[in-house]
Amino acid sequence: MSIFGKMTDIFKANVNDMLDRMEDPEKMVKQMIVEMEEGLTKATSSLAKAMANEQSLRKQHAAASEQARQWEEKAGMAMKAGNADLARQALEKKLSFDGQAKQYETMTAQASATTAQLRSQLDALKMKLDEARMKQSTLVARSQAAKAQKEFSTAIGTATGSGAFAKFEKMERKIESMEAEAQAFSEMGGTLPQDDPFAKLEKDQQLEAEMAKLMEKMGQGGV
Q1: Cα-flanking dihedrals φ and ψ of residue 190, to 5°?
Q2: With 60 as the cut, is the pLDDT of residue 186 above it?
Q3: Separation of alpha carbons 103 and 163, rounded Å
Q4: Percent of the chain predicted with pLDDT > 90
Q5: Which of 65, 92, 115, 126 has its CA 20 to 30 A from that of 24?
Q6: Alpha-carbon separation of residue 163 from 126, 148, 166, 175 (angstroms)
C-alpha cells in the first residue's frame, strides 16, 4: 500500500470508536496527530521526488529535441555542400534523437499526470490534518469532561452506598427531635406535670392550713 493509501486509512478511522477503547484518550489523540504529521512529511518527500523526476524528463526531452534540430541543420548544410552521404548520416542521427525525444515526451506526460495526482492527494491530506488539529482540543476537552463526570459519579455512588448521607440525615432528625423536646420543657417552665403526687400532697397541705386558719378565725369571732 502506498504512503497515500496508508494516510487516507488513518484519516478515515472512526475517532470516536477508538476513543471508547483507549485507556488514555488524550495521549492517543496527540499520538495520532504526530503520526499524521510524520506521514504527511513522507508524502511530501515522495511528491518532491516525483516532481524532480518529471523535471529531469522534461530536460532530457528538450535536450533530445535540440539534438534532433541540430542534426537536421547539419544535414541541410551537407546537402548544400553537395555531400549527400554526409547529409544522410546527419539525418540518421536526427531520426535517432527524434525517437528519444518522443520517448521522453511520453514519459514526461506520464510523470506529469502522476505528479498532479500526488499533489491533489497531498492537498487533501493537508486539509484533513488541519481538520484533525482543530478537533484535537475538542476531543481532549470531551475526554476530560467524561473523566470528570465518571469520577464525580463514582464519588457520589461511594458516599451513597456507604450510607454516609443516610446516617447524616438520621442524626440531623435526632438532633431536631432533641431540640423540640428541650423547647417544650422550656415553655413549661421546668415544672413537673399537674398529676405529680408530690405536688398534690403539697397542695392538700396548703388547703388544710387555710381551712385551719379559717376555722380559728370564725371561732374567735363567735366568742
Answers
A1: 75, 10
A2: yes
A3: 87
A4: 35
A5: 126
A6: 56, 23, 5, 18
How many angstroms separate the CA atoms of 95 and 97, rounded?
Answer: 5
The CB-side HSE value for 168 (13 A sphere, CA atoms) comes to: 6
The CA-atom distances, in angstroms, between 109 and each of 10, 50, 55, 101, 223 are 31, 12, 11, 12, 159
Q: What's the distance, Cα to Cα, between the start and end of the chain in Å?
A: 143
User: pLDDT, tens digit, for every residue of 117-176?
Assistant: 999 989 988 988 888 888 877 877 777 777 778 777 776 666 555 566 667 777 778 888
The three-point CA angle 8-9-15 to 5° equals: 110
How do residues 36-64 score in pLDDT, each as one tens digit?
A: 888 889 989 999 999 999 999 999 999 99
Separation in Å, CA 146 to CA 96, 133, 156: 73, 20, 15
Pull the grid cell for residue 39: 506521514
DSSP 116-164: HHHHHHHHHHHHHHHHHHHHHHHHHHHHHHHHHHHHHHHHHHHHHHTTH
Give the count of beta carbons closer than 10 Å to the beta carbon of residue 190.
7
Cβ-contact 10, 40 below 8 angstroms: no
**Cell numbers linked to 150:** 465518571
CA angle 98, 100, 103 (to 5 degrees): 110
